[in-house]
Specification:
Blueprint lengths: L15 E2 L4 E2 L10 H10 L14 E3 L2 E3 L5 E4 L2 H4 L8 H13 L10 H13 L6 E5 L2 H19 L5 E5 L8 H6 L16 E4 L12 H10 L7 E7 L11 H14 L2 E5 L23 E4 L10 E5 L1 H4 L15 H16 L2 H19 L7 E5 L5 E5 L9 H13 L2 E2 L10 E4 L7 H19 L1
Parallel strand pairs: 5-15, 7-8, 7-9, 9-10, 10-11
Antiparallel strand pairs: 1-2, 3-4, 4-5, 6-12, 11-12, 13-14, 14-16
Bound molecules: pyridoxal-5'-phosphate.
The site of pyridoxal-5'-phosphate has 13 residues, from helix 5.
Protein backbone atom coordinates (compact mmCIF):
# COMPACT_ATOMS: atom_id res chain seq x y z
CA UNK A 1 0.00 0.00 0.00
CA UNK A 2 0.99 3.62 -0.33
CA UNK A 3 2.98 4.68 2.75
CA UNK A 4 1.38 6.99 5.32
CA UNK A 5 4.11 9.60 5.02
CA UNK A 6 3.69 12.69 7.09
CA UNK A 7 4.27 15.93 5.24
CA UNK A 8 5.84 18.82 7.04
CA UNK A 9 3.25 21.51 7.67
CA UNK A 10 5.87 24.19 8.16
CA UNK A 11 8.38 25.66 5.75
CA UNK A 12 11.90 26.84 6.71
CA UNK A 13 11.86 30.62 6.30
CA UNK A 14 14.67 32.40 4.46
CA UNK A 15 13.80 36.12 4.39
CA UNK A 16 14.49 37.35 0.88
CA UNK A 17 13.71 40.26 -1.38
CA UNK A 18 14.73 40.13 -5.05
CA UNK A 19 13.01 41.60 -8.07
CA UNK A 20 11.06 38.33 -8.25
CA UNK A 21 10.78 36.84 -4.73
CA UNK A 22 9.70 38.29 -1.44
CA UNK A 23 9.46 36.40 1.84
CA UNK A 24 8.57 38.83 4.62
CA UNK A 25 6.68 36.84 7.25
CA UNK A 26 8.60 35.35 10.16
CA UNK A 27 6.79 32.06 9.83
CA UNK A 28 5.61 29.99 6.88
CA UNK A 29 2.79 29.43 6.88
CA UNK A 30 1.92 32.63 8.77
CA UNK A 31 0.00 31.87 11.98
CA UNK A 32 -3.14 33.53 10.60
CA UNK A 33 -3.70 30.67 8.12
CA UNK A 34 -3.52 27.88 10.72
CA UNK A 35 -7.29 27.80 11.31
CA UNK A 36 -7.88 27.36 7.55
CA UNK A 37 -5.30 24.58 7.41
CA UNK A 38 -6.90 22.88 10.42
CA UNK A 39 -10.29 23.01 8.74
CA UNK A 40 -8.86 21.55 5.55
CA UNK A 41 -7.24 18.73 7.54
CA UNK A 42 -10.57 18.09 9.27
CA UNK A 43 -12.79 18.07 6.20
CA UNK A 44 -10.52 16.84 3.42
CA UNK A 45 -8.74 13.51 2.96
CA UNK A 46 -5.12 13.55 4.11
CA UNK A 47 -4.18 12.72 0.52
CA UNK A 48 -4.76 16.44 -0.13
CA UNK A 49 -1.92 17.37 2.22
CA UNK A 50 1.04 16.60 -0.01
CA UNK A 51 2.15 20.10 -1.03
CA UNK A 52 4.24 22.72 0.77
CA UNK A 53 1.71 24.50 3.02
CA UNK A 54 1.20 27.81 1.23
CA UNK A 55 -2.30 29.25 1.03
CA UNK A 56 -2.43 30.76 -2.46
CA UNK A 57 -4.34 34.02 -2.34
CA UNK A 58 -3.86 35.28 -5.90
CA UNK A 59 -1.49 34.70 -8.79
CA UNK A 60 -0.50 36.78 -11.75
CA UNK A 61 1.81 36.04 -14.68
CA UNK A 62 4.64 34.02 -13.14
CA UNK A 63 4.04 35.10 -9.55
CA UNK A 64 2.01 33.60 -6.72
CA UNK A 65 1.04 35.62 -3.63
CA UNK A 66 -0.31 34.82 -0.20
CA UNK A 67 -2.40 37.33 1.73
CA UNK A 68 0.48 38.34 4.02
CA UNK A 69 2.96 40.07 1.72
CA UNK A 70 4.89 37.02 0.48
CA UNK A 71 5.54 36.67 -3.23
CA UNK A 72 6.78 33.54 -4.96
CA UNK A 73 8.40 33.22 -8.34
CA UNK A 74 6.44 30.34 -9.80
CA UNK A 75 8.27 27.30 -11.15
CA UNK A 76 5.15 25.10 -10.86
CA UNK A 77 2.41 26.59 -13.09
CA UNK A 78 0.12 24.99 -10.47
CA UNK A 79 0.89 21.62 -11.93
CA UNK A 80 1.78 22.64 -15.51
CA UNK A 81 -1.61 24.29 -15.95
CA UNK A 82 -0.92 27.99 -16.47
CA UNK A 83 0.96 27.97 -19.77
CA UNK A 84 -0.19 31.50 -20.64
CA UNK A 85 0.51 32.68 -17.09
CA UNK A 86 -1.58 32.96 -13.97
CA UNK A 87 -4.67 35.12 -13.72
CA UNK A 88 -4.50 36.42 -17.27
CA UNK A 89 -6.93 39.30 -17.68
CA UNK A 90 -7.98 38.12 -21.15
CA UNK A 91 -8.93 34.69 -19.77
CA UNK A 92 -10.75 36.12 -16.76
CA UNK A 93 -12.65 38.50 -19.04
CA UNK A 94 -13.64 35.68 -21.39
CA UNK A 95 -14.97 33.70 -18.41
CA UNK A 96 -16.92 36.71 -17.13
CA UNK A 97 -18.25 37.55 -20.59
CA UNK A 98 -19.54 34.04 -21.14
CA UNK A 99 -21.07 33.86 -17.65
CA UNK A 100 -22.75 37.21 -18.08
CA UNK A 101 -23.95 36.24 -21.53
CA UNK A 102 -26.11 33.75 -19.70
CA UNK A 103 -25.08 30.21 -20.64
CA UNK A 104 -23.26 28.32 -17.90
CA UNK A 105 -23.68 24.81 -19.26
CA UNK A 106 -25.35 22.98 -22.15
CA UNK A 107 -24.47 19.23 -21.78
CA UNK A 108 -23.80 18.17 -25.39
CA UNK A 109 -26.34 20.53 -26.89
CA UNK A 110 -24.33 22.77 -29.18
CA UNK A 111 -22.83 25.96 -27.86
CA UNK A 112 -20.72 28.43 -29.79
CA UNK A 113 -17.58 28.54 -27.59
CA UNK A 114 -17.29 24.75 -27.91
CA UNK A 115 -17.25 24.87 -31.70
CA UNK A 116 -14.77 27.76 -31.72
CA UNK A 117 -12.44 25.81 -29.46
CA UNK A 118 -12.50 22.52 -31.37
CA UNK A 119 -11.87 24.42 -34.60
CA UNK A 120 -8.88 26.19 -33.04
CA UNK A 121 -7.35 22.99 -31.68
CA UNK A 122 -7.95 21.17 -34.95
CA UNK A 123 -6.24 23.99 -36.89
CA UNK A 124 -3.23 23.80 -34.58
CA UNK A 125 -2.86 20.02 -34.83
CA UNK A 126 -1.16 18.27 -37.75
CA UNK A 127 -3.13 15.96 -40.07
CA UNK A 128 -4.73 13.51 -39.50
CA UNK A 129 -5.48 14.81 -35.97
CA UNK A 130 -8.52 16.81 -36.98
CA UNK A 131 -11.47 15.75 -34.83
CA UNK A 132 -11.57 16.92 -31.22
CA UNK A 133 -13.59 15.42 -28.36
CA UNK A 134 -13.71 17.66 -25.30
CA UNK A 135 -13.79 16.19 -21.78
CA UNK A 136 -13.08 17.53 -18.31
CA UNK A 137 -9.79 16.02 -17.10
CA UNK A 138 -6.60 14.51 -18.46
CA UNK A 139 -7.52 11.12 -16.96
CA UNK A 140 -10.81 11.17 -18.82
CA UNK A 141 -8.98 11.95 -22.06
CA UNK A 142 -6.66 8.97 -21.47
CA UNK A 143 -9.63 6.68 -20.71
CA UNK A 144 -11.13 7.72 -24.01
CA UNK A 145 -7.89 7.01 -25.90
CA UNK A 146 -7.77 3.51 -24.38
CA UNK A 147 -11.39 2.92 -25.38
CA UNK A 148 -10.84 4.10 -28.95
CA UNK A 149 -7.66 2.03 -29.33
CA UNK A 150 -9.38 -1.11 -28.09
CA UNK A 151 -12.50 -0.57 -30.13
CA UNK A 152 -10.43 -0.01 -33.25
CA UNK A 153 -8.37 -3.15 -32.56
CA UNK A 154 -11.28 -5.39 -31.68
CA UNK A 155 -13.14 -4.33 -34.82
CA UNK A 156 -10.23 -5.85 -36.75
CA UNK A 157 -9.78 -8.97 -34.63
CA UNK A 158 -11.38 -9.78 -31.25
CA UNK A 159 -7.97 -10.71 -29.78
CA UNK A 160 -6.46 -7.35 -30.77
CA UNK A 161 -6.92 -5.68 -27.40
CA UNK A 162 -3.49 -5.42 -25.77
CA UNK A 163 -2.52 -1.90 -24.71
CA UNK A 164 1.19 -1.28 -24.29
CA UNK A 165 2.41 1.53 -22.09
CA UNK A 166 5.53 2.24 -20.04
CA UNK A 167 7.17 1.60 -16.70
CA UNK A 168 7.07 4.71 -14.44
CA UNK A 169 4.33 6.26 -16.60
CA UNK A 170 1.62 8.44 -15.10
CA UNK A 171 -1.62 8.96 -17.01
CA UNK A 172 -4.02 9.92 -14.22
CA UNK A 173 -5.88 8.34 -11.35
CA UNK A 174 -9.00 6.76 -12.87
CA UNK A 175 -9.20 2.99 -13.32
CA UNK A 176 -7.94 2.62 -16.89
CA UNK A 177 -5.47 5.49 -16.69
CA UNK A 178 -4.01 4.03 -13.53
CA UNK A 179 -3.79 0.53 -15.01
CA UNK A 180 -1.79 1.68 -18.00
CA UNK A 181 0.36 3.72 -15.61
CA UNK A 182 3.72 2.20 -14.70
CA UNK A 183 3.80 2.76 -10.95
CA UNK A 184 2.82 -0.53 -9.28
CA UNK A 185 2.11 1.00 -5.83
CA UNK A 186 -0.63 3.18 -7.34
CA UNK A 187 -2.60 0.21 -8.64
CA UNK A 188 -2.45 -2.28 -5.78
CA UNK A 189 -5.99 -1.32 -4.84
CA UNK A 190 -7.31 -2.53 -8.19
CA UNK A 191 -6.77 -6.16 -7.31
CA UNK A 192 -7.59 -7.87 -10.60
CA UNK A 193 -5.49 -6.00 -13.10
CA UNK A 194 -6.36 -6.29 -16.77
CA UNK A 195 -3.86 -8.82 -18.21
CA UNK A 196 -4.02 -7.04 -21.57
CA UNK A 197 -2.50 -3.83 -20.24
CA UNK A 198 1.25 -4.34 -20.30
CA UNK A 199 4.10 -1.98 -19.46
CA UNK A 200 7.58 -2.03 -20.94
CA UNK A 201 10.70 0.04 -20.12
CA UNK A 202 10.67 3.68 -21.27
CA UNK A 203 13.87 4.55 -23.18
CA UNK A 204 14.89 7.50 -20.99
CA UNK A 205 18.61 6.69 -21.00
CA UNK A 206 18.79 6.95 -17.21
CA UNK A 207 16.46 4.48 -15.49
CA UNK A 208 16.54 2.41 -18.68
CA UNK A 209 19.96 2.39 -20.32
CA UNK A 210 18.96 0.51 -23.48
CA UNK A 211 17.14 3.05 -25.62
CA UNK A 212 17.04 0.95 -28.77
CA UNK A 213 13.77 0.05 -30.42
CA UNK A 214 14.98 -3.55 -30.49
CA UNK A 215 14.71 -3.48 -26.69
CA UNK A 216 11.01 -2.62 -27.02
CA UNK A 217 10.46 -5.61 -29.30
CA UNK A 218 12.45 -7.81 -26.91
CA UNK A 219 10.29 -6.61 -23.98
CA UNK A 220 7.14 -7.58 -25.88
CA UNK A 221 8.58 -10.97 -26.65
CA UNK A 222 9.53 -11.56 -22.99
CA UNK A 223 5.98 -10.62 -21.98
CA UNK A 224 4.63 -13.16 -24.52
CA UNK A 225 2.96 -10.44 -26.60
CA UNK A 226 2.17 -11.14 -30.24
CA UNK A 227 2.28 -7.76 -32.04
CA UNK A 228 -0.79 -8.64 -34.06
CA UNK A 229 -2.81 -8.63 -30.81
CA UNK A 230 -1.64 -5.15 -29.81
CA UNK A 231 -4.34 -2.53 -30.34
CA UNK A 232 -2.57 0.49 -28.90
CA UNK A 233 0.64 2.00 -27.60
CA UNK A 234 0.18 4.87 -25.16
CA UNK A 235 3.20 7.00 -24.25
CA UNK A 236 3.57 10.24 -22.38
CA UNK A 237 5.45 12.40 -24.88
CA UNK A 238 7.96 12.92 -22.08
CA UNK A 239 7.63 10.97 -18.87
CA UNK A 240 6.28 13.45 -16.36
CA UNK A 241 8.01 11.75 -13.44
CA UNK A 242 11.41 12.81 -14.73
CA UNK A 243 10.71 15.10 -17.71
CA UNK A 244 12.46 12.42 -19.77
CA UNK A 245 12.15 12.11 -23.52
CA UNK A 246 13.01 8.99 -25.50
CA UNK A 247 15.28 9.14 -28.54
CA UNK A 248 13.83 10.57 -31.74
CA UNK A 249 14.84 7.42 -33.67
CA UNK A 250 13.04 5.20 -31.16
CA UNK A 251 9.72 6.94 -31.74
CA UNK A 252 10.26 7.04 -35.48
CA UNK A 253 10.69 3.27 -35.40
CA UNK A 254 7.67 3.06 -33.12
CA UNK A 255 5.61 4.97 -35.69
CA UNK A 256 6.62 2.49 -38.39
CA UNK A 257 5.98 -0.47 -36.11
CA UNK A 258 2.48 0.82 -35.27
CA UNK A 259 1.74 1.28 -38.98
CA UNK A 260 3.00 -2.22 -39.76
CA UNK A 261 0.83 -3.87 -37.08
CA UNK A 262 -2.16 -1.52 -37.37
CA UNK A 263 -1.68 -0.27 -33.82
CA UNK A 264 -3.09 3.05 -32.60
CA UNK A 265 -0.25 5.23 -31.31
CA UNK A 266 -1.32 7.71 -28.62
CA UNK A 267 0.84 10.44 -27.21
CA UNK A 268 -0.37 11.68 -23.85
CA UNK A 269 0.36 15.40 -24.23
CA UNK A 270 -1.50 16.38 -21.07
CA UNK A 271 1.77 17.87 -19.76
CA UNK A 272 3.69 18.34 -23.00
CA UNK A 273 1.09 20.14 -25.11
CA UNK A 274 0.51 23.83 -25.85
CA UNK A 275 4.12 24.92 -25.98
CA UNK A 276 5.53 23.45 -22.79
CA UNK A 277 8.50 21.84 -24.58
CA UNK A 278 9.27 24.76 -26.89
CA UNK A 279 7.07 23.39 -29.69
CA UNK A 280 3.29 23.56 -29.86
CA UNK A 281 3.21 19.77 -29.42
CA UNK A 282 5.93 17.89 -27.58
CA UNK A 283 5.89 15.06 -30.13
CA UNK A 284 7.27 17.47 -32.77
CA UNK A 285 10.63 16.72 -31.14
CA UNK A 286 10.28 13.15 -32.42
CA UNK A 287 9.33 14.12 -35.99
CA UNK A 288 6.29 11.83 -35.94
CA UNK A 289 2.53 12.30 -35.64
CA UNK A 290 0.50 9.99 -33.38
CA UNK A 291 -2.95 8.60 -34.21
CA UNK A 292 -4.42 10.10 -31.05
CA UNK A 293 -3.28 12.72 -28.62
CA UNK A 294 -4.60 13.55 -25.16
CA UNK A 295 -4.57 17.14 -23.96
CA UNK A 296 -5.34 18.82 -20.64
CA UNK A 297 -3.61 21.09 -18.12
CA UNK A 298 -2.26 23.97 -20.29
CA UNK A 299 -5.30 23.95 -22.58
CA UNK A 300 -7.05 26.72 -20.62
CA UNK A 301 -4.44 27.97 -18.10
CA UNK A 302 -7.40 27.94 -15.71
CA UNK A 303 -10.67 25.98 -15.75
CA UNK A 304 -10.94 22.17 -16.02
CA UNK A 305 -11.10 21.03 -19.62
CA UNK A 306 -9.26 18.38 -21.62
CA UNK A 307 -9.44 16.78 -25.05
CA UNK A 308 -8.74 13.79 -27.25
CA UNK A 309 -7.79 14.51 -30.84
CA UNK A 310 -7.61 11.99 -33.65
CA UNK A 311 -8.43 11.12 -37.22
CA UNK A 312 -12.03 10.98 -38.42
CA UNK A 313 -11.71 7.19 -38.71
CA UNK A 314 -10.87 6.81 -35.01
CA UNK A 315 -12.95 9.62 -33.57
CA UNK A 316 -16.09 8.50 -35.41
CA UNK A 317 -15.93 4.90 -34.17
CA UNK A 318 -18.82 5.53 -31.81
CA UNK A 319 -22.34 6.41 -32.98
CA UNK A 320 -24.22 9.53 -31.86
CA UNK A 321 -24.81 9.71 -28.12
CA UNK A 322 -22.33 7.00 -27.11
CA UNK A 323 -19.12 8.93 -26.45
CA UNK A 324 -20.14 11.91 -24.35
CA UNK A 325 -19.72 13.32 -20.89
CA UNK A 326 -21.87 15.66 -18.80
CA UNK A 327 -19.45 18.57 -18.90
CA UNK A 328 -18.01 18.02 -22.41
CA UNK A 329 -17.41 21.41 -23.90
CA UNK A 330 -18.74 23.47 -21.03
CA UNK A 331 -19.14 26.94 -22.57
CA UNK A 332 -17.28 28.79 -19.82
CA UNK A 333 -14.35 26.35 -19.89
CA UNK A 334 -14.29 26.59 -23.68
CA UNK A 335 -14.33 30.39 -23.62
CA UNK A 336 -11.39 30.29 -21.20
CA UNK A 337 -9.50 27.84 -23.42
CA UNK A 338 -10.07 29.96 -26.56
CA UNK A 339 -8.75 33.06 -24.77
CA UNK A 340 -5.79 31.03 -23.52
CA UNK A 341 -4.87 29.74 -26.98
CA UNK A 342 -5.21 33.23 -28.43
CA UNK A 343 -2.72 34.48 -25.81
CA UNK A 344 -0.28 31.64 -26.45
CA UNK A 345 -0.32 32.42 -30.17
CA UNK A 346 -0.41 36.23 -29.97
CA UNK A 347 2.39 36.47 -27.41
CA UNK A 348 4.47 33.78 -29.13
CA UNK A 349 4.75 31.84 -25.89
CA UNK A 350 5.81 28.66 -27.67
CA UNK A 351 8.82 30.50 -29.08
CA UNK A 352 9.46 32.04 -25.65
CA UNK A 353 9.42 28.56 -24.10
CA UNK A 354 12.05 27.44 -26.59
CA UNK A 355 14.32 30.48 -26.03
CA UNK A 356 13.96 30.84 -22.27
CA UNK A 357 13.97 27.04 -21.99
CA UNK A 358 17.54 27.05 -23.34
CA UNK A 359 18.50 29.46 -20.57
CA UNK A 360 16.72 27.32 -17.96
CA UNK A 361 18.62 24.18 -18.92
CA UNK A 362 21.97 25.98 -19.17
CA UNK A 363 21.47 27.59 -15.77
CA UNK A 364 20.42 24.33 -14.15
CA UNK A 365 23.57 22.61 -15.38
CA UNK A 366 25.73 25.57 -14.35
CA UNK A 367 24.27 26.54 -11.00
CA UNK A 368 23.58 23.01 -9.74
CA UNK A 369 27.07 21.78 -10.68
CA UNK A 370 28.29 21.86 -7.02
CA UNK A 371 25.60 19.27 -6.18
CA UNK A 372 26.10 16.95 -9.10
CA UNK A 373 27.00 13.98 -6.94
CA UNK A 374 23.41 14.17 -5.65
CA UNK A 375 21.83 14.65 -9.08
CA UNK A 376 21.40 11.58 -11.25
CA UNK A 377 19.98 13.40 -14.25
CA UNK A 378 18.57 16.72 -15.38
CA UNK A 379 16.08 16.06 -18.13
CA UNK A 380 13.49 17.93 -20.19
CA UNK A 381 13.15 20.39 -23.05
CA UNK A 382 11.80 23.90 -23.29
CA UNK A 383 10.26 25.08 -20.05
CA UNK A 384 10.10 21.73 -18.32
CA UNK A 385 12.92 20.09 -16.40
CA UNK A 386 13.18 17.23 -13.95
CA UNK A 387 16.07 17.01 -11.52
CA UNK A 388 16.44 13.44 -10.31
CA UNK A 389 17.87 13.66 -6.80
CA UNK A 390 19.90 10.67 -5.71
CA UNK A 391 22.02 9.26 -2.91
CA UNK A 392 25.70 10.27 -3.35
CA UNK A 393 27.10 9.16 -6.70
CA UNK A 394 24.38 6.60 -7.31
CA UNK A 395 21.12 6.24 -9.20
CA UNK A 396 19.21 5.46 -6.00
CA UNK A 397 16.52 8.11 -5.47
CA UNK A 398 16.79 10.32 -2.39
CA UNK A 399 13.24 11.40 -1.63
CA UNK A 400 14.17 13.02 1.68
CA UNK A 401 16.73 15.32 0.09
CA UNK A 402 14.39 16.17 -2.80
CA UNK A 403 11.67 17.08 -0.32
CA UNK A 404 14.08 19.19 1.73
CA UNK A 405 15.21 21.05 -1.38
CA UNK A 406 11.62 21.83 -2.38
CA UNK A 407 10.62 23.01 1.08
CA UNK A 408 13.71 25.24 1.35
CA UNK A 409 13.11 26.63 -2.14
CA UNK A 410 9.57 27.58 -1.15
CA UNK A 411 11.03 29.18 1.98
CA UNK A 412 13.21 31.25 -0.38
CA UNK A 413 10.28 32.44 -2.43
CA UNK A 414 10.48 29.92 -5.27
CA UNK A 415 7.23 28.02 -5.77
CA UNK A 416 7.68 24.33 -6.52
CA UNK A 417 5.31 21.45 -6.07
CA UNK A 418 6.34 18.42 -3.99
CA UNK A 419 8.79 16.01 -5.65
CA UNK A 420 7.35 13.50 -8.11
CA UNK A 421 8.53 10.53 -10.13
CA UNK A 422 10.61 7.47 -9.41
CA UNK A 423 11.09 7.10 -5.66
CA UNK A 424 9.43 10.51 -5.16
CA UNK A 425 12.78 12.17 -5.80
CA UNK A 426 12.36 14.36 -8.88
CA UNK A 427 12.28 18.12 -8.38
CA UNK A 428 10.20 19.37 -11.27
CA UNK A 429 10.64 22.81 -12.85
CA UNK A 430 7.79 24.07 -15.04
CA UNK A 431 7.19 27.84 -14.96
CA UNK A 432 4.47 29.61 -16.93
CA UNK A 433 5.60 30.05 -20.54
CA UNK A 434 5.52 33.85 -20.24
CA UNK A 435 8.50 33.81 -17.84
CA UNK A 436 11.57 35.89 -18.68
CA UNK A 437 15.22 34.95 -18.92
CA UNK A 438 16.13 37.09 -15.87
CA UNK A 439 13.42 35.51 -13.74
CA UNK A 440 14.59 32.03 -14.67
CA UNK A 441 18.16 32.87 -13.66
CA UNK A 442 16.95 34.26 -10.33
CA UNK A 443 14.79 31.18 -9.73
CA UNK A 444 17.61 28.74 -10.46
CA UNK A 445 19.84 30.65 -8.04
CA UNK A 446 17.17 30.11 -5.34
CA UNK A 447 17.10 26.44 -6.23
CA UNK A 448 20.87 26.16 -5.91
CA UNK A 449 20.69 27.79 -2.48
CA UNK A 450 17.92 25.36 -1.54
CA UNK A 451 20.21 22.45 -2.46
CA UNK A 452 22.83 23.86 -0.09
CA UNK A 453 20.17 24.27 2.64
CA UNK A 454 18.85 20.78 2.02
CA UNK A 455 22.28 19.24 2.43
CA UNK A 456 23.32 21.20 5.51
C1 LIG B 1 0.82 12.96 -18.57
C2 LIG B 1 -0.44 13.04 -17.77
N1 LIG B 1 -1.54 12.43 -18.22
C3 LIG B 1 -2.71 12.50 -17.56
C4 LIG B 1 -2.81 13.17 -16.35
C5 LIG B 1 -4.10 13.21 -15.62
O1 LIG B 1 -4.68 14.46 -15.73
P1 LIG B 1 -5.82 14.92 -14.68
O2 LIG B 1 -5.17 15.10 -13.36
O3 LIG B 1 -6.34 16.19 -15.28
O4 LIG B 1 -6.84 13.83 -14.68
C6 LIG B 1 -1.68 13.81 -15.85
C7 LIG B 1 -1.75 14.56 -14.57
O5 LIG B 1 -0.80 14.86 -13.92
C8 LIG B 1 -0.47 13.75 -16.56
O6 LIG B 1 0.64 14.34 -16.12
Amino acid sequence: MIGAESVSQTIPVHPVQTAYRKIVTQELPPPQVRPLMDMSAHYEPRAMLGQPPVVWDRAEGFFVYDAYGNQWLDFSSGVLITNAGHGRKEIAEAIIRQAEHGLLTSYVFLNEPRVRLVQMISDLAPAPLKKVFLVSTGSEAVECAIKLSRTHGQNLNPAKKIVISYHHAFHGRTLGAQQIGGIPALKEWIGNLDPDMIQVPFPDGFRCGDTSFAFFEKALESAGVDPKNVCGVVAETYQGGGASFGPREYFQEMRNWCDKWNVVLTFDEVQAGFGRCGRMWGFEHYGVVPDLMCLGKGISSSLPIAAVIGSTELMDLYPPGSMTSTHSGNPICCAAAVANLELILREKLVENAALVGEVLHQELWKQLKPYDERIGAIQGKGLVAGIQVTKPNSAQPDAALARNVVWHAVGRGLMLFAPVGFGGATVKICPPLCITREAVIDGVSALAEAFADGLS
